[in-house]
Amino acid sequence: MIQEKLRAGLRVIFVGFNPSITSHERGLNYAGRNNRFYRILYESGLTARLYTPEESPHLLEDYGYGFTNLVARPTKRADELTAEEYREGARILREKLKQYRPRVACYVGKGVYERYSARRKVQWGFQAEPVLEGVMDFVGPSSSGLVRMTLAEQVSIYAELTKFMQYLKEP
């Protein structure tokens, strides 16, 4: 079972739809063989080196990056989740965001953000109106190998988050 990586004062919390079967079985975030998550983090500059799923707990200590999902139940595909699971997941996620108050909530996929926020036609990147005051919402593409975007396209979107994180470090 996947262990959430959460604590107060997170710089970024990465929010996925739900764990894949592989991630659930391995107890690791974004652990599918074709998942590009860690490559995207590295190539966009969000990490200084390429991490593996096994090293994901270090992202909490090294960068203040946490992990959670909209729905905890593992499935092969997100379309196997029910409307009730999404509603309950959105309620639980809102409580987690209130409790941990990350600087940025990064939704790994437009669908994740749409289900959480009940908004439609969202754009990539930072959203003008946060769902929860004080927590910036950033929408990035899903890192699933099933996504029809090139790695370069995915990286270019996440690079916007990198620029913001670098801006926060400057005096």
UniProtKB/TrEMBL annotation:
Q: What class of enzyme is it?
A: hydrolase
Pfam families tied to this protein: UDG (PF03167)
Q: Report the superkingdom from the record.
A: Bacteria
A GO molecular function annotation here is: hydrolase activity, acting on glycosyl bonds
For this protein, what is the EC number?
3.2.2.-
Domain Uracil-DNA glycosylase-like, first and last residues per copy = 8-156
The UniProt keyword set, sorted, is:
DNA damage, DNA repair, Glycosidase, Hydrolase
Gene3D superfamilies attached to this UniProt entry: Uracil-DNA glycosylase-like domain (3.40.470.10)
Recorded protein name is TDG/mug DNA glycosylase family protein
What's the source species for this entry? Alicyclobacillus cycloheptanicus
